[in-house]
Amino acid sequence: MTGTTVAVLRRSLDLLLAKDMRAYLALWHRDAVAEFPFAPPGAPRRLDGITAITAYLIDYPDKLDIAEISALTVHETADPAVVVAEFTATGKVVATGKPYEISYIAVVTVADDKITHYRDYWNPMVVIETLGDNQLGGTTTGATR
Predict the structure, then answer these.
(1) pLDDT at 56
(2) Which has the least CB within 10 A, 71, 90, 114, 134?
(3) What pTM was estimated for this model as a whole?
């Protein structure tokens, strides 16, 4: 399963770079959970189900133009359905042209070639500084999020 898990993770990052949010969201299981343990007040800490995840992520490319995902390191775990990914997303804020660069750690669980759980660790202070408080509702994940 680890090979499949890594492949789904890599595919998700490729789709984010391609700004193909429909295909990206098709990688998620209908009952998936996305968690953001470091989310500041006003930003969601947990999204349950594809409807909530879609609402949160569908407009991601309209807010952030991610041009590169670099420094990708994938760590396999004792559970072949789970990987830990470290990466940096670089791009710009669409509304302002301001540079965007943030490092992420994501714990990704995959079953039947679908993301079932995504725990996204990012620095909220960088996001607030770059995007402002009013943008925290739907653009903070790298993800893949």
Answers:
(1) 95
(2) 134
(3) 0.88
